[in-house]
Amino acid sequence: MKQFFILSSAILILAGTPLFAETNPAAPDNSKINKRDQGDTVKTPEHQSNDKADVELTRQIRKEITQDKSLSILAHNVKIITDGGKVTLRGPVNSQDEKEKIGQKAQQIAGSGKVQNELDVKSSSSR
């Protein structure tokens, strides 16, 4: 299942890649975050368990977040990584309020003490 997901993702990425790339493209916004996430101790989407209970927990949290129309698109797309019933939330959100709302939703579903909220609040200058 994991291999299928990786292969499908690679095909989708390649399908969207332009044939003629810019010769001097600008550095992506999230290059510092990508560098930070290279350590072995950092939870990334590759750490998502394929256990049915973990996949279902992730699905329920994602559904709850995306149904909340008061949250931004950025907030709707945060990373939810579940392994052994423990949930890690990662990615940027627009405000502290969004960070707290998402954390509360995840905690209501996963249970108290089972959510690590590592969401980053974007500064107003980087929006």
Short description:
This protein is of the alpha+beta class. The protein has 5 helices and 3 strands.
Mean pLDDT: 78
| Helical segment count | 5
Give the strand tally: 3
CATH topology of the domain at 42-127: Histidine-containing Protein, Chain: A
Spatial order of the strands forming the largest sheet? 1-2-3
- Which second-level CATH architecture of the domain at 42-127 applies? 2-Layer Sandwich
Q: Report the span from N to C terminus.
A: 36 Å
Low-confidence stretches: none
Classify the beta-strand content into a percent band: 15-25%
Computed structural class: alpha+beta
Largest sheet: 3 strands, mixed
Secondary structure: helix percent: 40-55%
Which CATH first-tier class of the domain at 42-127 would you pick? Alpha Beta
Describe the structure.
The structure is a single chain. The protein has five helices and three strands. With about 130 residues, it is α+β, with helices and mostly antiparallel strands. The mean pLDDT is about 80.
Q: How are the SSEs ordered, and which strands pair?
A:
Elements: H1 2-15, H2 31-36, H3 52-67, H4 73-76, E1 79-83, E2 86-93, H5 96-110, E3 115-121
Overview features:
alpha+beta; single chain; 5 helices; 127 residues; Histidine-containing Protein, Chain: A; 3 strands; three-stranded mixed beta sheet; globular
